[in-house]
Amino acid sequence: MQLFERTVGDWLEYWAKETPDKEYIVYSDRNLRFTWKSFNQRVDEMAKGFVAIGVEKDSKVGIWATNVPDWLTILYACAKVGAICVTVNTNYKQAELEYLCKHSDMHTLCIIDGDRDGDFIEMVNTMLPELKTCERGKLQSKAFPFMRNIVYIGQEKQRGMYTTAELLLLGSNVDDEKFNQMKSEVKCHDVVNMQYTSGTTGFPKGVMLTHYNITNNGFLTGEHMKFTQDDKLCCCVPLFHCFGVVLATMNCLTHGCTQVMVERFNPLLVLASIHKERCTALYGVPTMFIAELNHPMFELFDLSSLRTGIMAGSLCPIELMKKVEEKMYMKVTSVYGLTEASPGMTASRIDDPFEVRSETVGREFEFTEVIVLDPDTGEECPTGVQGELCNRGYNTMKGYYKSPEATAEVIDRNGFLHTGDLGIKDQNGNFTITGRIKDMIIRGGENIYPREIEEYLYQLKGIKDVQVAGIPSKRYGEVVGAFIILEEGATIDEIDVRDFCKNKIARYKIPKHIFFLDEFPMTGSGKIQKFKLKDYALEQCKKLNIEIA
Q1: Cα separations in angstroms, 365 against 6, 94, 182, 221, 314
Q2: What would be the CATH architecture of the domain defined by 441-543?
Q3: How many CA atoms lie within 13 A of 504 on its CB side?
Q4: Where are the domains of the chain?
Q5: Does 8-20+31-196 carry CATH code 3.40.50.980?
Q6: Which tens digits make up the pLDDT trace of 187-246?
Q7: What does pTM read for this prediction?
Q8: Which helix (H) or strand (E) is 48 found in, with range?
Q9: For 506, how many CA atoms within 13 A lie in the half-sphere containing its CB?
């Protein structure tokens, strides 16, 4: 096993030459298919289009879109000319969009119409009223001095914006010699992707990731699941997040396999794509797998082609992993990490026993060091002792954009990236996540780790999903709150939950407040926002005149 010093563009051109006629990108629902050769050609045309509208090395090019066909075209086009692709969360609203565009010094923003309840065109026009009167490519905005272009991903003309078709046409006028010169200047340690952290606490920060960071993390991820050119990965996770753009896309890119895309997560479309394309691997966060397993048409699809995949993004219930392995024929692996680590730090391997794959997040990635540090002393913890997980290696980000102070707060003087997550390393080198430093519930001096209670409650028949979070208390500082989604037809109430816990777990761990919800508040990448659950609990208690003692 080795690390490669290839750029994203180098990898694409490698497979376009080695396996030109093999399928690379497939949208099964519309029978849209690109071979490595045809996709590489489209990328070159798009890259020259960007050059035609003034994109240069290190220019920030944003993409605000669901997993549409040209999402990956834009990413690779940026990579070839040395521009930095800034991924924009599709859940962002006006203030978040404006903050990101301003902070990133964005030069060009590529958008679709919108997603769910967000009208992207309207928000961009609100942000840039000058679009209605300016000539395309000559945008001058006092509020956004770096912004020059808006590109609409589609055919429909929008005032002040280029369409992707126009961009491709403009690119035909760019000299090949100039384009090749720009390609030759791109190095593997250059920043290629900038992702803004979700911003659940404080202002979002731009994580700078290099070609070297993400291609090698994708490569090693694939190696852990024994990926080959014969594999077909169904990608239904969002591309704006590391799960999609690195663990899925860079895995496929470095192994020369096929990436079967789903534009927006839809469990029926995922099942149909696996069935039709004979996919061998599937990625998702736990809530996605729950939706697939519980779909009323689940039994109609042949999923026997599946062999492996990743369940990640949040802590994975053991019972859910058992169901996925049994009913979806997959050996499930997990990857633990964070955007700042490109994102994988640890991973279970496909050959690991089920206990390792379900109860731990595996061993450290090759060519990295993952250690457990005492949050108070900074000393390394012995085996079996809980502390903060920290990472050092090829996968550590280049830093936060324009934020050296914030970078210094998370990367210490020894080069270790501090995750803020608590974990334990066992005698076999496998890591278990026990909670977050800030996620830990402290009730009257007792430390309570939500994961422990969640795993216990999952065993109660009728519970589909559960999250545990601390709720402020005058008496104890915090008390345990349980937020439960029931299986269809289940009739569990608060008394049932407490009876299930009574005499089974310590009294102080038994949920004081229990809430039944239809869904959890999520980030765009599928992570549950526990701070919003706390807010919900306080609102409900106030509404029902329940005193939080």
Answers
A1: 19, 38, 33, 8, 19
A2: 2-Layer Sandwich (3.30)
A3: 15
A4: 8-20+31-196, 441-543
A5: yes
A6: 999 999 999 985 434 578 999 999 999 999 999 999 999 999 999 999 999 999 999 999
A7: 0.86
A8: helix 36-52
A9: 10
